[in-house]
Structures are given as structure tokens and as C-alpha cells.
Design a protein that fits this description.
Two copies of one chain form a homodimer. Chain A is an alpha+beta fold. Chain A has eight helices and ten strands. In chain A, helix 3 crosses helix 4 and helix 5 crosses helix 7. The longest helix of chain A is centred in the middle third of the chain and has 27 residues. The first copy, chain A, binds a DNA duplex through helix 7.
Chain lengths: ~250, ~250
DNA sequence: CGGATGGTTGAAACCGTTCAAAATCTGTGG
DNA sequence: CCACAGATTTTGAACGGTTTCAACCATCCG
């Protein structure tokens, strides 16, 4: 019984059986959170690393006047960056977006294991650097793309990332975000997100019932990726299948 | 004679004398680059970690239609993220902005040292996580701030970072960036950067001769930081001297 | 000089915002 | 089963920050 977390870590480097087990122990007792709760708050020194096992969470920053920027989504299997290593006040908060199960791994245990076991250390580097690559891509998304391109890019990235943890069916997945949250992710207003989603629908790229089951279906993956100018390189999900682009279907693990 | 790089690394954790020396050896033979040259190109697997010892460099990403986003400035003492650990194609390029002296540290030597010497590993984590914090802040800058706020934020961040490596005089420093480069950093157009810089000048916040010596003087640091809604926490330059800032929101350390 | 690069200026167009209100769904309790 | 509160989505119209396009200026340098 290997946790999503370990499975995700292994997309970087395969881990010895032994290390897998030890990592699994660290997340054996996840804590349930309701939706819209803070897991870690900006300005505090967090004693634990955060691993999301179920549900969605995010990192976000607030400006003093209330404007908000979401800087990352934490999907099942994702961990907060190893920020805890620093024992310094967090520069951002982490909060749930849906009900979630979250493991809080004490810094010392994680650090100790990493220090002792090189493959674990490698896995943590992989995870961190991958997170950084996503951040860079988001910066290029927000800084240099139009509203439609931004949304297309986000939806496509989420498709690939959710595929990697088995949370998609074909080209459909559950998108629990509100339009306001999408806006805070992409540097737009909720109103404009709404209008832009409508044009994506009209253009036959996606299907999305906002109310109800919140199911998003990507009708035209190539079209969406093209609109987004999507280059999957930054997600580098794995060494093995050397993922390049719209690699539908072919997620052999 | 300790290199800027090591001095920068020690802003996170102090290093044993021995490790300092070994790190210094790694950057003993920097390579000179002209301005506007690529050091590492997107898509390639880089065999070396990049350390900038003199001059400015940046990381940037290109969209297929030529739009560009600069995702980081590499100032003297800064190193490229440990991206090289992955032995995967780079998701971005690194290029010089000015003539520069750059050390290329073979992956294996850096990795080996880090693996052997825990303080070195800690320093690399610190460096990487700090880079990530800056990236998050930039995302919040580009995603949620107006043009004037963005520019103010950038200029103030550069002030603090250059201060940390002794490249300022009072509140003045040399800003070698063109307005087009600032635009590519902040998700704006060169034209608008120009107009916005003018209002900052008119408002008595800065002094900047664009032609000539390229010297930027920040006339009203508090005003500039306030406009930018600047919170220096993310730079966490050091444990020791703690945040030195017009720290409006006084946080208990 | 003359050409190149980068900075400045102006006018028009546009994308995205703002403000405000209505519509749609969810959940709760009577 | 209906009523009602609350949250989210949708719609409309006016506004404005930023872009676009185009020209012109300033400085550097061979």
C-alpha cells in the first residue's frame, strides 16, 4: 500500500523498497481538514512539512489591501516545498480548497531521513525543482499571456498533473475551483474569468458545468494546448517516459 | 579571499572554514561572457551549475511567438537553481544581461560535495528555497499589482539584493537593465515602462538617468516600498541581521 | 558623420476592470 | 415540499490602464 505521495516522488527517481516504507510511515496519520481552512499561515515558522494526500490545497500570498495571488496548487501527492528546512517565517500561507486529508511531517524526521538516505534526498530535490519549474511557467503565463491563453494553460496543466495521479477519466476531471479562485491564480478578475470560460465553451474547446458536479471535459486537447502555447517540458513528469507533449493515453507507469 | 558566491551562501547558514574553501575551489576559474549571450539554452541538458561572480544574468522563457518572460535575475553571488541535479532538459534559458564572469561548476563535483558535507547541502537548500520565495513574490507582483507598483517593487528588491553583496551606495545602484528588459520581467510593454518610470520620477521617488551612467537613486525608500506594498520577509537575507526594513507590519521574531 | 540601440512622445484601440444587478444552484429548517 | 439565506455564476454598461503603432529624439560608437 504505497501512498500517493511516494508514488509522486518516484516519478522523479525510483526509490528502494526500504525508503518507500519509511516515507510511507511519515504520512501514515493524515489530518482531515475542511474546505477553505489554513494549514500553515504566513509569518509563522512551520514545524512540519505539508503533504496533501486527498483533496486540493494551495499556496497563496495576500497584499495588504486584500488582493490575493495563488502561487501553487497542491494536488493529492504534492508536498509543500521544503521551506520548513529553513526554520524561518513562511512567506506565504497554505490553505485547503476542498475538504482534504493532509499529513504533517515533522521537519526533523523528514530531514533526518533525507540526510541518511540519498535516494530520499534526491526525491526531495526532484520534487522541489519541479515545483520551481511550475512556478516559472506560471510567471510566464501570468506575465505574458492573454486571459484565454492563461485559462487554457491552467486547465491543460491540471489535466496532465491529475493524469499523473490517476484523477482523470480520458480528458475529463473534477475542477473544484471557483471562478474567483481561478482569477486569483491567473491575475484576472472573476468577471473576466467567467466571460473567458464562456468563449472557450463556445469555441468547442471545453465543457464545464459550473454548478453541479463541477466536471470539466476537455473536448479538444490539441486545440487547448495550442491556444495555451503549452510546452510540457516543465512538468517533466518522469525520466522514464521522458514526457514531451500532449502525450495522451501513453502514461505507462 | 572568499568568493561572493560563498558569502552569499553563508547568509543562510554559516559554513565551516573547510567547506568554504572547497566551494571556493569550484568557482576558481570563471569564464568571461559578453553581454546578451546565452549561458545555458532551454531544451538542453546542462552539465554544469551556473554561478554568477560578476555582472548580471537572467533566466528567461520564450513563447513560440517570441514573447519573452524573464523569471529571475542572477546577480553576483547568485547561482542558477540546482536544476542540473535532474539531468533533464532545461525548461528555460540563462543569459547574460551585462558582460559577466560566470563559473560553471560540474554537476558531479557540486553534488559530491553536497552529499559529503551537510553544511554545503544546507546552503544549497537555502539558496534554492530563497530563489523559490523570490519567484513566488514575483508571481504576486505580476499577477496582482499595477504597473507602478510592479516597477517600485522590482527597484526596491534590487536595492536590497544588491545591498547584500555590497553593490550599492546609500540608496543608489547601477541598474543595467533596458526598459525592454524591465518590461519582460514585469509583464508590461516597454512603452508603458517608460511612462511609468516618468511618473515615479515626477513623484520624487527615484532618480534615474537612462542614458549615461545608468545610475538609479532611490530618493524616497519608504515611499517606494509603501507603493510596492513591499514585505521583505521573502528575501530573508539572513538569520543574523534579521530583516532590515521599513518593516511596517512589525512581526515578532 | 551615419547607423544602431534605446528612450520618449502622441493618439487610437482594446482588453480587462469595475460596479451593479440578476440568475442559478446548494443547503437548511420549517 | 417550500421558503429563504448564502455563495457562485452570469449579464450589462461604462470606464480606464495598458497596449499598439508610429514617429521622433538622444546617445553611443565605429
Amino acid at each position: 500500500m504505497v501512498s500517493v505521495w511516494v508514488r509522486r516522488l518516484e516519478q522523479g527517481t525510483p526509490l528502494p523498497h526500504d525508503d518507500r516504507c519509511r516515507l510511507d510511515e511519515l504520512v501514515a496519520a493524515p489530518v482531515p481538514f475542511e474546505a477553505d481552512r489554513d494549514v500553515v499561515v504566513e509569518g509563522r515558522v512551520s514545524p512540519d512539512a505539508v503533504v496533501v494526500l486527498q483533496g486540493w490545497a494551495c499556496r497563496y500570498k495576500l497584499l495588504s489591501d486584500g488582493r490575493r495571488q495563488i502561487t501553487a496548487f497542491l494536488l493529492p501527492g504534492d508536498m509543500c516545498d521544503l521551506h520548513v528546512f529553513l526554520e524561518q517565517p513562511m512567506d506565504h500561507s497554505i490553505g485547503t480548497l476542498t475538504p482534504a486529508r493532509v499529513a504533517l511531517v515533522p521537519r526533523d524526521r523528514l530531514l533526518g531521513l533525507a540526510r541518511e538516505r540519498w535516494p530520499v534526498m534526491q526525491a526531495l530535490w526532484w520534487s522541489t525543482l519541479r515545483g520551481e519549474a511550475i512556478l516559472r511557467e506560471w510567471l510566464a503565463v501570468v506575465g505574458r499571456r492573454s486571459a484565454a491563453e492563461r485559462i487554457a494553460h491552467l486547465l491543460y496543466e491540471l489535466l496532465l498533473r491529475l493524469q499523473a495521479v490517476g484523477l482523470t477519466e480520458d480528458h475529463a476531471y473534477v475542477l473544484p475551483l471557483t471562478q474567483a479562485e481561478i482569477a486569483d491564480t491567473l491575475g484576472l478578475t472573476p468577471v473576466h474569468v467567467n466571460r473567458t470560460l464562456q468563449t472557450l465553451r463556445q469555441d468547442g474547446l471545453i465543457e464545464l458545468d459550473s454548478f453541479g458536479n463541477r466536471r470539466l471535459t476537455i473536448l479538444d486537447p490539441e486545440g487547448l494546448a495550442a491556444l495555451a502555447d503549452f510546452d510540457a517540458r516543465y512538468l517533466r513528469s518522469s525520466d522514464r517516459n521522458g514526457a514531451k507533449l500532449p502525450d495522451r493515453r501513453r502514461t505507462a507507469d
